[in-house]
Amino acid sequence: MVRNSGEIDGKRFDVAILGGGLGGLQCGYILAKNGLNVCVIEKNPLAGGCLQSFRRRGAGDTICEFDTGLHYVGGLDEGQPLNRLFSYFGLLDLPWQKMDPEGFDEVIINGKSYLFANGHNEFAERMTEYFPHEKENILKYTALLKKVGESLPKSLSPKSSEDVYTGSLFAESAHKYLTETIGDPLLREVLSGTSLKMELSRNLPLYTFAQINNSFIESAYRLQGGGNMVTEKLIEGIEGFGGSVAVNCEVTSFAGNEIIINNIHKVEANKIISDLHPAATMNLASESAGIRKVYRNRINRLENTFGMFTANIALKPCTVKYHNRNRYIHKLGQGRSLWDASDNYAAHPTEMTSVLASYYNSPDSSPANQEYTDRIDLLTPMSWNEVEQFQQSSVGKRDRRYNELKEAKLEQVLDFVEEQLPQLRGNIERVYTSTPLTYMNYTATAQGSAYGIKKDCSNLMLTLLTPKTPVPNLFLTGQNLNLHGILGVSMTSFFTSAHIIGMENAVKGLEF
Ligand SMILES: Cc1cc2nc3c(=O)[nH]c(=O)nc-3n(C[C@H](O)[C@H](O)[C@H](O)COP(=O)(O)OP(=O)(O)OC[C@H]3O[C@@H](n4cnc5c(N)ncnc54)[C@H](O)[C@@H]3O)c2cc1C
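That is the input. Now the predicted structure with flavin-adenine dinucleotide docked in place:
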């Protein structure tokens, strides 16, 4: 791995990839596998972007690995889409741990619990037990998810690579679909209740809602260890194919075939792929890059999804029971809906309606200790407005008021989950918190947004970006395009690479 920009100064590559998040590394892998001389250029000392994990002290002298943006993945059983994609990238032999198929997710609304089971039939049966009067509608809903999931491999067929951008489900509203299909308003909330993995807004495309929910209903897995295992594997693959990954290399500008790194060094490339947030890409493109003002303005005006407040909590040993599932805890006032969330973050930034609790166990803890959890991550949406005033300060040198804000938020989150996790507060050994500002500093994502650009089914032309840009040798990839999340980004890496080597070559070796 290249650790110093001086080592690549003056080199020329077939493709330079700006940003070594999942999208950048996967494009690097596909293109290097196809014989191109690629270089993935990452600003941080560690690649991975949202997949980075970090090591901090846990209970006593133990060291814990905490994840940032990888809590679980869907569709990893044999034959399912992510399994095929991860097989291509050599990621299947990582220690993936299957979550409880009887209840991989638990949605708790105002104290009442609903378990999500794996498998379309099992999922429908479980939901019907809770809502017997909705049996037919549940079947309709489940059939739609299945159909959307089945369409996924087709979008990687050499003949229909662009379908995914024009598919009618992108142009339909998930909220409208649910309202028209499901009669019981509470069931609508339950079906939407695992959706802290996207921002629920009235114009959220049905495709996004259905594809993501479907993949987890197919199967759900956690990675035992940290997301950086994925990163390391991809880097190993890229280097094995003759490509390079350069860290500590911040792209400070680019134009034409030239990329300036850390303001002093220069590399050249025939083609450039940017895995950065498109607004960050526009900021780095110099005037001479040939990007018209109208395109820059369009990108800069796009709205972003919410950011997250995260509390990574290390627990005292053998105190809090382990759950092999995520728990989505919601508190909804009379007549309120999870679908109001998007508007609420803007209107009432400090109001808390939803928290996700994810439980972790060390792979090497003794069987007796497997009953208990070592770490819990609590995540809740956090408005950019709350942290914006501190954006000029840098990590480690923040204003005292910023730390007070984080402490107050942590208290609010702990109060919020108290009823469901009564043992938590008294058994905390250490807590590490982060906000959208943390994410913005590490990944340069606009407003520290968790899932990138907000797609709007009523305005697809503007909000659904494709890999192509107005500059012939510049392409985009990553979560801001088609679909966010590990599955979405993995798919998009093929769409982007296809613009350079053709879909036929990109998908060679991908068994669908
Ligand atoms: C809190 C949270 C929880 C999540 N949980 C899940 C989950 O459980 N399951 C799931 O499927 N998805 C989850 N996601 C989403 C998933 O992590 C992302 O969709 C995915 O990792 C995004 O990858 P990316 O490559 O598009 O972007 P990023 O990870 O943002 O990568 C962009 C990269 O570009 C680099 N960069 C930026 N500026 C420069 C520059 N000037 N020069 C060089 N490099 C630069 C950054 O450092 C970064 O490495 C979560 C996300 C968040 C934020």
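The domain at 5-52+225-301+458-506 is CATH 3.50.50.60 (FAD/NAD(P)-binding domain).
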